[in-house]
Amino acid sequence: MGQKLKIAGWVAIGALAGALTTVQLQAVARGAMSPLPLEELQQLAAVFGMIKTDYVEPVDDRKLITDAISGMVSALDPHSQYFDAKSFREFREGTSGRFVGVGIEITMEDGLVKVVSPIEDSPAFRAGLKAGDLITKIDETPVKGLTINEAVRRMRGEPNTRVTLTIFRRDENRTFPVTITRQEIRTQSVRGRIVEPGYAWLRVSQFQERTVEDFARRLEAIYQEDPNLKGLVLDLRNDPGGLLDAAVALSAAFLPENVVVVTTNGQLPESRATYLASPRYYLRRGQPDPIRRLTENTNGLFKRIPLVVLVNEGSASASEIVAGALQDHRRATIMGSQTFGKGSVQTVRPLGPDTGLKLTTARYYTPSGRTIQARGIVPDVWLDETAEGNLFSALRTREADLDSRLNSGRELSEAERAAERQREQEREQARQRLEEEQRRNPGQRLLPEFGSDQDFQLRQALNQLQGKPVIVSRTATERTEPKAEN
């Protein structure tokens, strides 16, 4: 057995050495590289060999190596990721705003998939799924034990194929199956309308490939409806981000040409860059410029109109770039709560025809040089979620709460540590309050829809634009970055 293990180990070392030679040649081509840690690589090869010979059942070589790569990458930070063929395709679908599936926004709750909202006019919407529904099975597979990405993969598929979801609806206390035919879903990342004479609301829910064009067309339509606009509310609440060039483009719609929007800094020379409010920093070759068209078609109105930007703990990445640029250039008043704090840039590098690596390659900085990694954008005016206060915001996760996150290396004071302990208590109180509200109001939306007449924060943003009194938060305070665990 020992001889067999030794042979397997040397075979594994040979295979890995061949692969690593290629990696080393590629790395040298990119620049200087430290010598490979041969002792650790021999240990990796030994483990590979032991699994091949001793594991209870045969394991596919490709799976072992793929899982090893995935583990190595995912341990770096929460945003780096190895893409196999299927996840790479799904990632590209997500940034394009088009995918084949059932058409629901989801989250995880108690190990089950929870429907946040069915996308309007999607198969799930037409099948009668509701916000708050819990998915317990996807076809014959129990959801318990699946990650959210695994659940998404099972619900997506080829057009016109069927998937059966088992639904538990709390307010009716019943479980039932729903069979849905998958279709291509086109998500709409931009919505907007005139909310009062002279004042408009524009919501961007994600920065995708079509966002800039949709953004420009929506503002052009609003201008056609009311050319005498006096103010605009740009709503970036719960916007998780997306494409950097889209964030630069949206910032350029409101800023003077050629001012700094964001800077990045990392190990590689191409990771150290400055992005300006100029077409060459957001347009791909041969594309028309929707932002220039918008400016020309609206007589430059959106370069000078009074502007409020609404943000919250769910505003991350690209939405923080926009908020930070507009805040630093004093172009807008930022209102709401402290943002998520994802101040890192991910670069997607193809590894072959259908696999890739999403790797954190830089941190980004606002025009004044502020890093927002694990800190976020601090609003100019703090707002509660509702007139009754911040009911559930303590439950929202921020970058500072994530394991293995990048940090700024700053130590916390004792007062800041005490504030962190207080936040944990508030989180538990908010969790108990949420459970009680769900028992008393089963199946009902506990917070008003963004942009509705009951949207408290939107009302305060309009008051700010109109010079009326604003009900500011009396309890919200800036959250500092907790010390990262080593």
UniProtKB/TrEMBL annotation:
Record-level GO cellular component terms: outer membrane-bounded periplasmic space
Stored PROSITE patterns: PDZ (PS50106)
InterPro entries: ClpP/crotonase-like_dom_sf, CtpA/B_N, PDZ, PDZ_sf, Peptidase_S41A, Tail-specific_protease
CDD domains to which the protein is assigned, alphabetical: cpPDZ_CPP-like, Peptidase_S41_CPP
Lineage: Bacteria, Pseudomonadati, Pseudomonadota, Betaproteobacteria, Burkholderiales
Name this protein carries in UniProt: S41A family C-terminal processing peptidase-3
Organism for this UniProt entry: Tepidicella xavieri
Sorted UniProt keywords: Hydrolase, Protease, Serine protease
Domain PDZ span(s) in chain numbering: 88-156
NCBIfam families named among the record's database cross-references: prc (TIGR00225)
